[in-house]
Design brief:
9 strands, Rossmann fold, single chain, Ferritin, alpha/beta
Length: 485
């Protein structure tokens, strides 16, 4: 059975269970089950290749002990074991032994995990389907990784869960433009389901990873922080599926909860790639962690202040920001002034409003900047929906190849050779300053549609209404005459 067929069969079984409500809960349930199977498959491999290795999971709680046997416990006995023994232990698992990081990963994942299924019989059927996947098989893992990516994509329609997922066309383009290399410290402060990191892994493995040392340097330089339990669990599982041996760098924490002043030079990174939450507010007290001139409850603003601090000199960033951050005033103005003074904001790619549908339908932008010298000019590029398509949607999402025009325009290694086009324009810093740091500049090459003179349009509308009224009167007469016959 293929991975795709197996996952579809599992979802069909789960839909029969009264305890699982909607796509987000179904994916969460799938994830902790997959996670336990993956961890156990890895443990078996490590036990055979590493002298003295012992899994941090006690023997009687390992997948192979209670789940692998298709004739094993089921029904109420299975539910009782999972709810009263397995989950309580894993949520509080002691961090001891030769692999405390591995124990920490398991405990962090289960800190926010729940067993939603109410039927132990259906749960046994799900477990038996999962047993058909060998996560130590490169082929099985790759095929399942593709299916898992589609499951994550489906999150976009799962209510608020869509906020955790950035379209892979966007993450792939941003990673390609930032061009990370093995050993460069790479940070995603709002990791979500791990899209930026998985794209970065693929990018580096295709271009730069040639030796085991390259792979080790790459994995050792990854940093991810995710606040919410569901995306954290999805992200850790995603890392395992992408060949990460130790995903303990995926921290379950709130980046903004740490005082701004406590982030020092030792915390600085070479690359920031992220899509921070926007449109929401942080809890009371979080803004007090920041200097008074940057205090706000708007998450996008707080993250931008932190990015400027966390980039080391020469470091580069690719981030997603909403239109409101570009034209907003007050704290937003002070943040933009600081950004342009300390960083070279060289490119803003303006995205169509439909890119993040159905979760969000507001205008968004991709900002690319480098720390170390002030901005002298900003290049804008207007990304458009492909010809023949009205908007992006779940069934027709933005893809990385849609950015090929922008990539061709981008220029050489130092972005030399850029020229103004119908979709690209240059704005000097003086103009930005004159606009009080309002970065919301529309494409000057787009001619506004001429809808005509308002008085003439009104006269035409009134004439059309009179004509319609005359036609209605004629129709009434015809109908009346027909009834008298």
């Amino acid at each position: 059975m293929s991975a795709r067929t197996a996952v579809k069969a599992i979802q069909d079984i789960m839909r029969k269970d009264v305890g699982v409500d909607g796509d987000a809960q179904r994916l969460s349930q799938l994830c902790w089950l997959f996670f336990l199977k993956i961890i156990d498959d890895q443990d078996e491999l490590l036990e055979s290749t590493e002298d003295g290795y012992r899994s941090p999971v006690p023997a009687h709680l390992q997948w192979r002990s209670w789940a692998k046997n298709e004739e094993g416990i089921t029904g109420e006995a299975l539910l009782e074991f999972i709810n009263e023994e397995l989950f309580p232990y894993l949520k509080e698992m002691p961090l001891k032994g030769s692999h405390p990081n591995r124990a920490q990963v398991v405990r962090d994942v289960f800190a926010g995990a729940y067993n939603y299924m109410k039927s132990g019989t259906l749960l046994r059927q799900v477990i038996n389907k999962i047993n058909g996947i060998d996560f130590n098989s490169l082929s099985d893992r790759k095929h399942f990784g593709d299916v898992y990516e589609q499951l994550l994509n489906d999150l976009q329609s799962a209510g608020n869960a869509g906020e955790y997922y950035t379209p892979r066309g966007v993450t792939g383009f941003m990673v390609d433009r930032i061009d990370p290399k093995p050993g460069e410290l790479l940070l995603d402060t709002s990791g979500g389901t791990g899209g930026f990191i998985t794209c970065a892994l693929r990018h580096m493995r295709e271009r730069y990873v040639k030796t085991v040392a390259d792979e080790q340097a790459m994995q050792a330089a990854l940093r991810v922080i995710e606040k919410k339990p569901l995306p954290h669990m999805l992200c850790v599982t995603n890392m395992l599926l992408h060949g990460i041996e130790d995903p303990s760098f995926v921290k379950h924490d709130n980046t903004l909860a740490r005082p701004y002043s406590s982030w020092g030079t030792s915390d600085q990174v070479a690359i920031i790639l992220t899509n921070s939450p926007f449109g929401g507010e942080e809890e009371d007290g979080i803004q007090d962690n920041f200097p008074s001139q940057f205090r706000t409850r708007e998450t996008a603003d707080l993250f931008l202040a932190l990015f400027i601090r966390l980039l080391k000199p020469g470091g580069r960033a690719g981030i997603v920001l909403p239109d409101g951050s570009l034209f907003g005033e007050g704290v937003k103005t002070r943040l933009k002034e600081k950004l342009l003074a300390e960083c070279n904001l060289h490119t803003i790619v303006r995205l169509p409003n439909s890119v993040f549908r159905p979760y969000a339908s507001i205008g968004t932008n991709l900002l690319f900047f480098e720390k170390g010298r002030p901005t002298e000019e900003i290049w804008y590029y207007e990304q458009r929906v492909p010809e023949g398509q009205k908007a992006y949607s779940m069934t027709r999402p933005i893809k990385q190849e849609h950015f090929e025009g922008c990539v061709a325009w981008w220029g050489g290694p130092g972005r030399e050779g850029r020229v103004e086009t119908e979709q690209a324009w240059r704005v000097p810093i003086a103009t930005i300053q004159e606009r009080n740091y309002n970065l919301d500049l529309k494409n000057p090459h787009t001619v506004a549609a001429d809808h005509g003179d308002p008085e003439e349009l009104l006269a035409s509308l009134q004439a059309a209404e009179r004509q319609a009224a005359d036609l209605r009167d004629q129709l009434k007469v015809i109908l009346a005459e027909a009834l008298l016959r």
